[in-house]
């Protein structure tokens, strides 16, 4: 078995072939990994990629069980997913048989049978009591379902037309839209907070509060343990809230790496009706990542003597199309500010005055940011790098990455999807000061980023 050919690899390659097939003239669609598939019917390509790739015994549904184990309840994965995989086997049998059918008239009959069974299977899924947990499974099945329907259009079978196809797309759209938010209503309850704050009034020290606690993501098996002294017990409420928010946003981000494939559904009928589009709600076509800071990241143990130099003055800017980013930095990131297409200036995070850098010429579709690298230390954000959709970068801004002994955490956020389907659309954060006796002004202590689906690819 090819261990490196994952669920994500199979889905990405198939979607690339689909896009290349229906939008070959579009310069944004990169060449596919294996061009031999371009000479096969799309449904044959799907069957090979999903069920026969590298002669593996593990088809894409077996892989989705492993892929979803950090997305939803492991019990659901082992019971419900297994149940639906068994129920899917008659459809899989028909798909494999399709590969060896040569005559068009027999293929047409075979496809009619597949359409009927896929439609019925979808109806059965919608009756499940565990529907919100089945989204990863349903996404995988949706790609198969729509490939079968597209083949039916191609063969002009008597029982299926484009308007019926659009109606089924609409039903899937409603399904994914309705259950996306329901899933995360459940998901946030899987992140628990346990804190203990002791107020020692008899202490001669300024720091009268001793805080101990942890935030745990039960599904993702992530834990942040925190202990510190401070003169303000409210600080720790804010710390734990931000850690929980960061963990939830990371869970959403991991989920979106699966969910992003539903945004390709209209591609299945693009060459039959190019003007057809789906308007996905902003609530499911965009997401925040973060906030990151030395007190909220990384997972593991944190032990601060004093948090009084972190302000927790988090900005709440409205996101949009970013056209420019200004920042100042030297040893650390002193401040950062986004500017938007409507002429709006986002809130400046931090006030320090290092060397100014301007990232300009950004827009909605041809030049945008798809990923960000962060390095933290000294209680603050020390280095940042922005990566563009063409693969170029700003380079590392801020010098903390050169001081290995000062680094407390680093992370790269994005890109999401091999075809850069999401662009940076918002920046928020809060300030703080270096934990020294010198006052260098307010710098960047916390930062979070919003990514939004690129409208057209």
From TrEMBL:
InterPro entries, sorted: Jacalin-like_lectin_dom_sf, Pest_crys_N_sf
GO molecular function: toxin activity
Protein name: Uncharacterized protein
Species for this entry: Rhizophagus clarus
Lineage of the organism: Eukaryota, Fungi, Fungi incertae sedis, Mucoromycota, Glomeromycotina
């Amino acid at each position: 078995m090819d261990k490196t050919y994952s669920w994500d690899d199979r889905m990405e390659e198939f979607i690339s072939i689909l896009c290349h097939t229906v939008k070959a003239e579009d310069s944004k669609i990169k060449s596919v990994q294996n061009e031999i598939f371009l000479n096969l019917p799309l449904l044959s390509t799907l069957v090979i990629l999903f069920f026969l790739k590298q002669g593996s015994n593990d088809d894409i549904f077996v892989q989705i069980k492993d892929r979803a184990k950090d997305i939803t309840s492991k019990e659901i994965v082992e019971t419900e997913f297994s149940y639906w995989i068994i129920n899917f086997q008659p459809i899989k049998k028909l798909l494999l048989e399709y590969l060896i059918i040569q005559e068009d008239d027999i293929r047409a009959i075979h496809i009619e049978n597949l359409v009927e069974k896929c439609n019925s299977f979808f109806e059965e899924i919608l009756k499940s009591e565990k529907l919100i947990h089945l989204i990863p499974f349903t996404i995988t099945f949706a790609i198969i379902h729509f490939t079968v329907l597209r083949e039916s259009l191609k063969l002009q079978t008597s029982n299926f037309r484009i308007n019926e196809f659009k109606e089924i797309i609409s039903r899937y759209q409603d399904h994914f839209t309705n259950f996306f938010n329901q899933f995360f209503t459940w998901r946030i309850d899987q992140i628990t907070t346990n804190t203990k704050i002791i107020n020692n009034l008899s202490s001669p020290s300024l720091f009268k509060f001793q805080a101990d606690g942890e935030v745990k993501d039960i599904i993702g098996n992530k834990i942040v343990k925190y202990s510190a002294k401070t003169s303000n017990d409210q600080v720790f409420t804010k710390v734990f809230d931000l850690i929980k928010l960061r963990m939830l946003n990371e869970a959403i981000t991991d989920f979106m790496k699966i969910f992003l494939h539903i945004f390709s559904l209209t591609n299945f009928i693009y060459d039959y009706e190019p003007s057809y589009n789906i308007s996905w709600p902003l609530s499911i076509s965009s997401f925040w990542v973060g906030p990151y800071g030395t007190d909220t990241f990384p997972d593991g143990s944190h032990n601060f003597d004093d948090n009084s130099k972190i302000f927790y003055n988090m900005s709440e800017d409205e996101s949009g199309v970013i056209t420019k980013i200004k920042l100042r930095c030297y040893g650390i990131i002193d401040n950062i500010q986004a500017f938007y297409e409507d002429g709006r200036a986002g809130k400046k995070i931090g006030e320090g005055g290092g060397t100014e850098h301007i990232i300009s010429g950004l827009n909605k579709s041809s030049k945008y940011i798809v990923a960000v690298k962060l390095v933290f230390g000294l209680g603050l954000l020390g280095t940042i790098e922005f990566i563009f959709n063409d693969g170029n970068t700003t380079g590392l801004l801020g010098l903390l990455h050169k001081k290995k002994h000062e680094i407390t955490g680093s992370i790269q956020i994005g890109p999401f999807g091999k075809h850069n389907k999401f662009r940076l659309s918002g920046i928020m954060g809060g300030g703080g000061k270096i934990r020294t006796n010198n006052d260098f002004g307010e710098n960047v202590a916390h930062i979070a980023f919003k990514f939004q689906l690129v409208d057209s690819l």
